[in-house]
């Protein structure tokens, strides 16, 4: 399977070196940013996204210990097109990072600000 069409080229070597555990990808606009398909393709090329978690990749570590591949990366799609969708995306990002409580507090604060704006413009 070849590289999917798109306007963006992701630096696979840099991605491999960074070895992220979570990557956020958008699918709302292929022109604005790399698409989710482009991100998934690059992660697979970098060896960061597959079904085998931390599989042995050979010998050569210190004291003959096997070298291990980094744990696979999790791709979290983020593609809000409305204010409510943006708040859902905040919750998704927070959950992916293990910060659900902080995400809920942020969303509550944002909802409060939106309500103040609604009240102000309706007067």
From TrEMBL:
Spell out the InterPro entries in the cross-references: Vitamin_B12-ABC_binding (IPR051030)
Organism domain of life? Eukaryota
Which residue ranges have biased composition labelled Basic and acidic residues?
Answer: 56-65
The region called Disordered is annotated at 51-74
Matching PANTHER family: VITAMIN B12-BINDING PROTEIN
Q: What is this protein called?
A: Uncharacterized protein
């Amino acid at each position: 399977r070849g590289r999917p069409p798109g306007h963006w080229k992701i630096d696979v070597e840099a991605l491999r070196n960074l070895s992220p555990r979570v990557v956020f990808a958008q699918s709302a606009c292929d022109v604005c940013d790399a698409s989710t398909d482009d991100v998934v393709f690059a992660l697979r090329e970098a060896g960061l996204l597959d079904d085998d978690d931390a599989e042995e990749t050979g010998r050569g570590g210190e004291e003959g210990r096997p070298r291990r591949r980094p744990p696979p990366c999790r791709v979290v799609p983020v593609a809000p097109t409305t204010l409510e969708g943006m708040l859902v995306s905040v919750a998704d990002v927070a959950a992916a990072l293990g910060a659900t409580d902080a995400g809920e507090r942020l969303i509550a604060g944002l909802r409060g600000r939106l309500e103040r704006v609604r009240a102000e413009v309706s007067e």
